[in-house]
What we know:
The chain has helices spanning 2-16, 20-41, 45-65, 68-79, 81-88, 90-101, 107-111, 114-136, 152-155, 167-173, 213-224, 253-264, 266-289; strands at 141-145, 159-164, 184-188, 191-197, 228-232, 239-243, 246-251. By secondary structure, the protein is α+β, with helices and mostly antiparallel strands.
Amino acid sequence: METLSNFWNYIINQLSSVGISDIIDIFTVAVIFYYSFKFIRDRRAGKVASGVLLMLFILLISDVVGLHTLNFILSNIFQVGLIALIVVFQPELRSALEKIGSGSFTRMNKKFDPHTNTELQRCITEICVAAENLSQNKTGALIALERHTKLGDVIKTGTLIDAVTSNFLICNIFFNKAPLHDGAVIIRNSKIYAAGCFLPLSTNNEIVKTLGTRHRAGLGMSENSDAIIIIVSEETGIISVAIDGVLKRGFSRKSLEEYLNMNLTEESTVETIRSKTKSFINIGGDKHAK
Length: 290
């Protein structure tokens, strides 16, 4: 009983010595670990990370059990492990740093500018109408909507247009006899900024084999930037969207417009939070009523 009392006194003393800086420190580390885990969970890096953790576990066991040869080999491997990890995780590290660097405070002004949001809403509507028409005609299309990560390197591979976004122009670009139909259209600041652009192909070996080069290019661009990529299949007419290396398929014009609004406009984000909060309150109220 006395031992238990001493243990609780020790815990209380430790907690009482925790300051604001300690709380901030713990919270920051927890956030970093959470987003690191979330980032690598659905990528190829997840399997590599699992392999590294397994080797660390084997190294620990070899040290405890006394397997000197195995411990010597693994210890020397981990001495140069940092450089090896940088080489192995190079695509994922680049993608993560680009996403961190894209968090500019200046973009907040655009989100709260009514004129910008009006133009963006019109742009979204035109893109969705074009995607529906292209889907019905089974015309392949690849449209990249630039967000915070600039796509200047990709734009250089195509032809500058800088025109107002319209359904007819998008359909004309992707008409199978048009000279720019094989590449991707880049949407910047609610305008068709470039066409005929070449996107980087995804190196993920777990992509479904039935998906072609167009889908691999869309996924590759979403893995290397925060852009939203819209893909229309030439074979099936299915509309897909790639974000953060994840491909979602089977969009209609309405669902695509809702999805783009949710990810691109500030108003829809606020409305989503309000609706979810309202639903949560209603559910809580129903439970209490019961």
